[in-house]
Amino acid sequence: MTLTLATTTPGEPEIFASLQGEGPSMGRPSTFVRLSRCNLACQWCDTAYTWRFTGDNRFHRDDLAFERRENQVAMEEGDLARAVADLVPDRLVITGGEPLLQGAALARMVAALNELRPGMHVEVETNSTVAPHPALDGLVHQYNVSPKLAHSGNPAELALLPDRLSAWAANPRAFFKFVIAEKSDLTEVMALQETYAIPGPRLFLMPEGRSSDVIRKRSGWLADFCSLHGLRFTDRLHIHLWGDTRGT
């Protein structure tokens, strides 16, 4: 069985060792696996090559279309497990796209990885709309959950599913990360926190931006808001270090 991965260059799966750039594990050495395909379409998405293929008319502000053949690659679950095991970090971050769309195959891959490298810490990054496959859920140590606010361009009936948000809020392994572009976005976050009783220590706010300049401009007022409301701030470390590039 195979998983569908994004690519760094045509035919080359996006598997790499780096530092986690966001959220509760920021700064930790990690191996990243980026899967392809997403059920949402954020207008500011920095990995649109995982979903906005030629013929997909969902809006993105860059208005770029990517050739599927050059930006997707299938990889056997066992081969992927061995590729992860061969890299140094003892932390795996499975990202996308929306990785939980491939939950059953991920479960088999992580199980194979545990045979090769027992004790690997496994994180899954998700847009919050897809429930973890039961076989995968028991293998995941941490979920980085990023519900999409109105400024993402996704309608709330697709992006903010009450049953899913309630389940994530009740899961102590789930850390919420909200992308913030304008101060007006904060009202939406606070309403969601109250509605779903999201604990402040598990709620991160992150400035939207694909360059250091934009991130820094938004960081000051956003950090102030976090300190006033008992929330956590997260930077985008990888952007500062390497820019908006694949495989970092």
Give your account of this protein's structure.
It is a single chain. With 248 residues, the protein is α/β, with parallel strands linked by helices. It has one domain (2-242): Alpha-Beta Barrel (TIM Barrel), CATH 3.20.20.70. It is built from nine helices and eleven strands. The strands form two sheets. An eight-stranded mixed beta sheet has the order 3-4-6-7-8-9-10-11. The protein starts with a strand and ends in a 6-residue tail after the last helix.
Radius of gyration: 17 Å
Query: How much strand?
Result: 15-25%
Q: Determine the N-to-C terminus distance.
A: 27 Å
**Under CATH, the topology is which?**
TIM Barrel
Per CATH, the architecture is Alpha-Beta Barrel
Query: What's the CATH H-level superfamily name?
Result: Aldolase class I
Structural class: alpha/beta
Question: What is the overall number of helices?
Answer: 9
Strand adjacency order, main sheet: 3-4-6-7-8-9-10-11
Q: What are the segments in which pLDDT stays under 50 over at least 5 consecutive residues?
A: none
Strand segment count: 11
Instruction: Report the major sheet.
Output: 8 strands, mixed
The CATH top-level class label: Alpha Beta
Integer tally of domains: 1
Mean pLDDT: 98
User: Roughly how much helix do the residues carry, as a percent range?
Assistant: 25-40%
Which oligomerization state do the chains in this entry correspond to? single chain
Order of helices and strands: EEEEHEHEHEHEHHEHEHEH
How would you sum up the global shape? globular
